[in-house]
Amino acid sequence: MAHSHDHDGPDHAPHDHGAHGHGGGGAHVHGSTDKRRVMFAACLTGGFMVAEALGGLFTNSLALLADAGHMLTDTLALSLAWYAFHLAERPATSRMSYGFGRVKTLVAYTNGIAIFVIAIWIVYEAWQRFLEPPPVLGAPMLVIATLGLLVNIAGFLILHGGDRESLNMRGAILHVVGDLLGSVAAIAAALIILATGWNPIDPILSVLVAVIILSTAWRLMREAAHLLLEGTPDTLDRDAIAADLRANVAGLREVHHVHLWSLDGSRHMATLHACLDEGVEASPVVAAIKARLAAEHGVEHATVETEFDRCADGEGDHDGHHGHSQPDVAKHRHYH
User: What are phi and psi of 161, to 5 degrees?
Assistant: First the structure.
C-alpha cells in the first residue's frame, strides 16, 4: 500500500520551491523594470526634496514643509522599495526556500506605517499653525509648489507603468501620489493667499492632504498585513477553485485541505489534497491540477498531496472548513 505525496509531480527531487516560476517570464521582466523605475523615482524625489525644504523655510509655508517632509520619507521608502526588488532577485536558499520575494510585502507594510506617521505629524503641526497662523510668502511658495508638482508628475509617470499587482510597487506609487497631492494643495494655498491674504488656508489644505493619504495608506497596510498573515488573496476563491478542479480534472474525485496564499500580491501559491479515483496514475492528474491552477487561477506554484482513500490528516481542514463533498468520506481508508 502506498500513500503518495506528489508535491511537484515526477520531477520533485531536483525541484526547488524558490525557483518554481518565481523568476521566469513576465515576473522577471516586471521585477527588473520596476526596480529601475523605483530607482529613478527615488533620485528625482530626493533631489527636489532638498529644494522644497529650503523653500518651505524661506516662505514659512507648512504646506511646503509638509510636502518636503513627505518627500524625504518617500525618498527613503523608494530606496527601501528598490532594495526589496534587489533582494527579490536573489536565488532561494536552504533557509529561504521561497527566496526573498516577501521582503517586498514587508516593505509595503512598512511604507504604510511611515505614511501614517507623516500624516499625523502634518495634522499636529497644522493645528498649531491654525491657532496662530504665521505669515506666508505666497509668490515664492507658488513657484516652488509648481516645480514640485512637475517633479511629482514625472515620478508618478515613471512608476505608473510598473506592475500594479505588486504591493511593493503600489506602496511606492502611493508615496508619490501623496507628494503629488501635497504639491496641488500647496499651489492652491499659495493662490488663495495671494488673492485673499488668508494664511490659515495653508494648514487647512495640509490636513486635507493628510486625511486623503491616511485613508489610502490604511488600505495598503491592511492588504499587506493580510498577505503577511498568509490570507487567501482577494482574487482567489478557495471553494470555487476546488469545485473547478473537481469538474475539469479527469480522475480527480475530491479536493480538500486547500490553502491559498501569496508572496507579494502577484505570486500566488497553493497546497491541497487530491483524492483520486481507484486505479488512476497519480502523476498525470497532478500535472493536470497544476496546469489548471496556473492557467485558470494564476497560481504559479502548487504542492499537491495525492491519496486514494481516507485522508491521513482527518476529515476537515485545519481552519475548520470541511472540504469534502462526498457523503461517505468517513468510510474511506487511508493507504500508507
Answer: -80, 0
